[in-house]
Amino acid sequence: MKFLKKVLDKQNEGSIYLEILLAFFVWLVILSTVIPSFLHLTLARKEILIEHMGNQILSRQVQKVIYDQPIEASIQQEGYPAYYTVVQENMEGMKEICVYYKSMENEEKHVCRTINKQ
pTM for the full model? Predict the structure, then answer.
């Protein structure tokens, strides 16, 4: 307690430097807890954007299949992974359209939709 009073006492020479050093370390502790959280949020946002782009591409490809237009087998956009479209038809005349892509962790992901094309 006496040490703290000495540090905070304005009469002592050099106490301003100790206060600045103390404030610097307090900010350092605060920033060391905030920056990792911010980085985690940034990565989670990028993952959501990649997934959203996959859903948008799937919607466009489904429209093309419905209107008998040619689909794009591979789609590459800047800042996003490559998206690959696969169309499979089963015995009942149903078509399953899937878009495959890689996540930020390099995991293979896909979104699919089944349509009844008659």
Answer: 0.73
What is the Cβ-side half-sphere exposure of residue 5, based on CA atoms within 13 angstroms?
Answer: 2
Residue 29 CA: distances (Å) to CA of 7, 38, 118: 20, 15, 64
Residues 50, 78: Cα–Cα separation, whole Å = 11
pLDDT digits 0-9 by tens, 25-52: 999 999 999 999 999 999 999 999 999 9
Q: How far is CA 18 from CA 2, 5, 15, 24, 98, in A?
A: 15, 12, 5, 10, 63
Contact in structure between 97 and 60 (CB atoms under 8 Å):
no
Check residue 76 and report its DSSP letter: -
3-state helix, strand, coil in the chain (%, to 5): 50, 25, 25
pLDDT tens per residue across span 1-17: 566 566 555 555 667 78
